[in-house]
Amino acid sequence: MQSDSSSSIKRSASEGPSSATPIPIMTDPISSVDSAREQDIEIDAYMAEQGEDISTQPASLTIEQKVARIKYLRDKSMVAGDTWYIVSRQWFRPWEIACGILSDKSLESLQEKDIGPPDNSSLFDSQGNLTSNLVEHIDVEFLPEEAWSELVAWYGQPIRPLPRSVIAKAFLQTALELRPPRLKVLVLKDLGPDADIAGPAHAYVTVSIKDPMKTLFKALVSAVTALSNVPYRIWKIEPGEFSGSHFPASKLASWGAELVSEGTDKTVEDNMIEPEDPFVVEFQENGAWIVDASQVVRAPPPSAVHVPPPHYSNDNDFFSRLSNQRTSAFQNSQHFRTPSPSRRGSSSKAKESSVTPFKSFGFSKGSSKIIQEPGTLGLGNMGNTCFMNSALQCLAHTKELTDYFLSGVYQEELNPDNPLGMHGAIAEAFGLLLHRIWARDSTSTSYSPREFKSQLQRFAPQFSGYQQHDSQELVAFLLDGLHEDLNRVLKKPYVEKPDWEGGGDLELAKLAQTSWDGYMKRNDSVIVDLFQGQYQSTLVCPECEKVSITFDPFMYLTLPLPVNKKWWHVIHYVPWDPSILHKKVPVEISRDSSFRDLKNLLGRWMGVKPKKLLTIEVFNHRFYKNLDDSILCGDMADNDQIFCFELPCNSRQSRSYKPKDNDPFIVPVILTDVVPPRPAYSHYSRLTNNFGFPFIVVIERDQAVSVNDMYDAVIERLQRWTVRDRDLYTWQTDPSPSGAVTIPISTVSPIDSVAEIKENGDVNEVDGMIIEGDIADEKIFGEDDSGTEPGAYVVGTKQGVFTLRLYTGYKDYVAGGNGSSNGRSEQWETRTEDTESGAPLLKEGDAFLCEFDENMKAYYFGASQFENSLWDAWVPFLHLEYLEAKEVAAAQKSKGITLDDCLTEFTKEEQLGEDDLWYCPRCKKHQQATKKFDLWKVPDILAVHLKRFSNSRTLRDKIDTFVDFPIEGLDLTGLVGERRAGTRLAQSGANINELGIRDVEEPLIYDLYAVDEHLGGLGGGHYRAYALNHATEQWYHFDDSYVTRSDASHAVNSNAYLLFYRRRSNAPLGGKTNEKIEEAGRKAATEAEEENAVEPEAQLPTPPSESDATPFPFPSTQPSNAGYLTPQSNTRSTPTSSPPPLDDGDPTMLEAQSDDLIAEDGLTLGPLELASHQFDFPNPSGGASPTSSVEVEPDYDDDPSRTSLFRAHANIDSWVGSSQNGLPSPAVSDPDTNPFSDMNSQKKSADDSMDV
């Protein structure tokens, strides 16, 4: 550690420009010191010019000045472009403790001289990678550059410094870029036609996502050469692992190389550059480039691309195992053709839209690549984007939502002028992504959704960069963003919320319908049609029993987990009455309970009002932390010593308590040895040697005017803790006590003998027993007092037992933060002089220190063993309620948790907390009302959020408990208030259709179709998804780019986080949205028929080998009177609404390649018929495993240069079409405007097939 003398500006200035920055002195709390330091710099500069020695260091700062300095600098706001530093809490917290900012029981002896240089080693793993947890105030602290420079100057050169740029994230919002992209740098070499990558290990550069491309170029070149005058250019190649830094020129084409333009104002983020992206720097040799850029043809990357192993690898885990076999998921199964999930076309408005959906690419018979089943596209991890990928897969497999986007209806409903929306950008990006996922002739196994992420972070800055986020937060934002982008309400009117005026089912249903109608006047979209339901919230005033009912919409259902997360502790209970022994009380209460709840429990057990109980933590013989009503029990450690003192007055630990003028003083008392006198120049008290337990004394205001009266009050409390309590008082015996003068004292414990003080000063021990009474009783010994001498009585408290010292600075009974000091002493004479005559001598924040000399301490409490103390004389107290709770907990431990239990917990009535009061309009004041949530209306698509994460003040926890939820048959009929009320109203003859209640006979049963799961802990971990492919009725497991066939039962596990359910119904789901989709389908079919009638031979451009091509199936548009089974019901549809099914079976891929009739007419099976086929699927345990959630995966996108093979006469692309038949898919677009053009797509060679 550096000595204090090194903490000068001279040292800082010598270490870099950042340290030499002048220190602000206008508002700095130690501005005088800074001014002196600046003068030192000026003097030193002058002396240096004269050749003088300037090695002498100025005076160092005190600890208090250092603390004030860092605090002042940390209070500055972040400004875009500034540099801040990340500091590990494992280093910063000991510094705070050493400086007295914090107190820690395990680091009591830590001093500033023990603090080493700033060290961030704990933030890196064994491979040198930054850990995923960088939560401020928990894992790290953020310091401005000036503060960091000060710490370096004081404590030495840092270990693994982490400078980070402040970036602008939104309007007037800034944030620290915690994870700037780290990029790989290689050098282009002419090593021969067959050379491999060679040379030393490649370098890395780290840049900000907001840096311009020029900055990136400079960083890349500087990483590989010190020369600055050699012409260069930069190539970007496909991601991968590289064994060296010398990249052969002959491999540029095979690695999909692209020249990167420097002359642009775009940033790294604008160019969608991701972490771990590789760049190759080419320098001119002899005035010429090594390669001819025009000859570098972009091609798929080689099959040797190495994918990092999974972050959560487990040999026993079937979906987390790495596979050494790189075979197609369908090589061992029958090849089949999957129909398009919808037969609907696009409207004319969709044709005119500037949006260019994903292009459908052809597949030739001679190609070695295999067409992937629609909906099985993996999403590449771009660096901690697994949270986004899993959420997108769940939403992409929501059939009704997919139908809406792939039919092109969304383009008709874009609302770019909605001020609450995102100008339609999120809806367009999501629509393009769905076209990519559900492409019917794609050979890609994975795709990195860069365009979607770019739009996402543009409108949701909290998701920018490459940090891990909550998947549920993304789902909530995306659904809300899609709703506003597609809101059919162009101008939102003002709608007043109705009030509940009482009544029965009819009035309740009317209120609910009025609330829903008012909401729909401002909100009407596909998201409302599919995802939104309605809560019923009921508040009841505990005083006047006023009932308030409101109805609010919800988009997802957040369910608490009824896990018995109990907090078990032993409470040291101290009654106010000294004659009642103190107790050790074991308690068991919910971890989420506050100390207010704990005091309610103890008050009930002890027969005391909870407001008269004071809870406080004791450590190192002093009060350590005030445990007021807002503190959570779960915040306390298992070995914390918690005391609960009974008081004769309000403990004033509730934030709602309003102080009164006549409130007594609640004063902490600390026992200590005699404190050595402090030096006259010191402003702070000397450290004391405390012993025993601290306690509480209550001083009435009339007592506070006299030091002697306060001394007596302390004696009264002290008698509980010593076996020689009788000797705390002065006794006298008199045969005729009638004339004696007695003093009023409170109850004194029974004793076996009393001390008789004789005239000559001798002390005579006599037997006796004190008679108990109230505080005004006279304590006299009579003839009947257990054999004591007649007339023994208390004259007063014994003086000189200890010296009563006054200390200040005890805010909330604690001094120096968390009891880290004894505050500041003050003489009674000084306090008396500063106080008006007759006024109380005490102030808020005062404390008493009782100084015992060695003899008095030994007499009353014992010597080293404290044999005369009662500090260990705690009586065990086991309440029947506690014993019963232990039995119930043991029984519940063997019972699992179901989704029904979570729903029951959600609808359970609870009382509002003191910080969340409700204003009762009848009582005209805030009340702790009881609140209850109920489900009134449920949506067609029910998204359930299992609340697994809790984040209290100091506790960060994830509940990994297994929740059993049904795959099929989740019945909510009995929980939905609208259905119950509607049934009763229908039975009474009311017209429920007028109330918006329909189909009360149909049960509300839901089936699972997707699960978003989270592995790991809070702030990190990894997300994956299970989803049902609605076209084939096959379940899949999505682990970023790895996709494997699975089973629905595998989704039911302890990692399940978000559940997606679809309601069973005899009618199509989606209401108004479904009508628009069907209308779009009919319109597209009519347009196709008209086009065929005019140009029967017209067809799309096809390659020369069309006759040998393998066509992907497409729906027929020929009319039929038979009708066919729809996916939503078992009834047959009308010929005008949907095309008929085919009579023949589903051909294999091999048959399709040689069946000209099928290729001509485009016949196919419907989704249900296709789903009835049985296929031999590979075992999921043999599938490939995911990469780490913190790494970037290579993008194995296919070459989109092939043309479509489908003919125009048969509504080929009713979901994913081409521009030639007027459907919302592009044919060819400019690469600068088409995000899915060759320039922006990644490639993968044919022999690099990946398991899905």
TrEMBL record:
Family matches, as InterPro entries: DUSP-like_sf, Papain-like_cys_pep_sf, Pept_C19_DUSP, Peptidase_C19_UCH, Ub_carboxyl-term_hydrolase, USP, USP_CS
Enzymatic class: hydrolase
Chemical reaction(s) catalysed: Thiol-dependent hydrolysis of ester, thioester, amide, peptide and isopeptide bonds formed by the C-terminal Gly of ubiquitin (a 76-residue protein attached to proteins as an intracellular targeting signal)
Alphabetically ordered keywords of this record: Hydrolase, Protease, Thiol protease, Ubl conjugation pathway
One Gene Ontology MF term: cysteine-type deubiquitinase activity
Signal peptide annotation: none
Keyword check for Cell membrane: no
Ranges for domain DUSP: 61-167
Region (Disordered), start-end ranges: 1-34, 329-353, 818-837, 1069-1252
Name the record gives this protein: ubiquitinyl hydrolase 1
UniProt lineage: Eukaryota, Fungi, Dikarya, Basidiomycota, Agaricomycotina
